Fold this protein.
Amino acid sequence: MSQQQGPGFCTLAIHAGQEPDPATGAVVPPIYQVSTYKQDGIGGLRGGYEYSRSANPTRTALEECLAALEGGARGFAFASGLAGQDAVVRALTGPGDHVVVPTDAYGGTYRYVARVAGPQGLAHTAAAMSDLDAVRAAVRPGHTRLVWVETPSNPLLGIADIAALAELAHSAGALLVVDNTFATSYLQQPLALGADIVTHSTTKYAGGHSDVVGGAVVVAREVSGAAYADASERIAFHQNAIGAVAGPFDAWLVLRGLKTLAVRMERHCDNAERVAAFLAGHDAVAQVLYPGLSSHPGHPIAARQMRRFGGMVSFRLRRGEDAAVKAVATTRLWTLGESLGGVESLIEHPARMTHASVAGTALEVPADLVRLSVGIEDVEDLLADLGEALDIPG
Ligand SMILES: *Cc1c(COP(=O)(O)O)cnc(C)c1O
């Protein structure tokens, strides 16, 4: 992956947007739990703060840090990942426009595009993002405004070529939006690869401790095409006009999470590599989906555009759905639950849980699939618990 100029990732994570508090010297930005600000005469704002939907100092610190970590021009913090995605879609598309979405999109993203934006006039086509010809066929030049991609994808861990998709989108006059939630800004830098906008559910690895729901949007320094030159301004306008902003305490929790993102991701990757290798050698397992395995069809692209391969591992069981349901109900250390990216390991059955809302659509996932969010516990304990659950006769 490309190296950024200036301070390194870990330095930015701890310092970007986070000068010691000018009033007290506090080394961590305080939680400015406040809605309004005294004006020194009408319009005499101190530091530009007027009302906390428009801006709040704790949120500003987070937004500057998010932008720095992605190498973007401007960052925005939202109340959830989906709230951020909503602002992107509303800011950059209108009735009669078209977007291309992944066949294995996050279920909530697909539900938003199909059932919220769709009835308001936005058309969409689902395409396999790992197949450039399929994406090319799905794009409608002149109508497609956004090509939306998740890589690695959820829950199938598909890999898409960000640089190639950026070129394809731009040649059709569209922008490339990358949902970087699974990879994180530490493992993957989509803007450096040509993407225009990055989104995150900061609920996941960015927050990292399963204690906050949040979202982020970062816009590139140069957004492709005259029609979008003001993408940052449009998103800023919609963030304030819709108002789904991150509150001060939530912004503070995400900011704290980001400080340790790099060290956490290294351990998530260490453990996930061990878990993937263990599953690949297990009799009950039909297939392991992990981009770090050389058997993964997207491995060469992932190796090119990611620092390491992340903490998410999915696998399919030979004995089918019943075995998958039994496995997720049997582990003790791996907690049965939705979400991902926290320090604790989670296990789930996508077809009945996170992806139940896409049953019967092109995005339906296999019923024998189990998804793991590999945490940072001692890996021997994780392997022992998983092994016991898989050894139970089905
Ligand atoms: C969780 C998630 C979202 C949605 O984010 P929320 O914070 O739950 O609104 C979007 N994309 C991906 C890849 C996710 O995992």
User: Anything to note?
Assistant: The longest strand covers residues 144-150. The two ends are 43 Å apart (CA to CA).
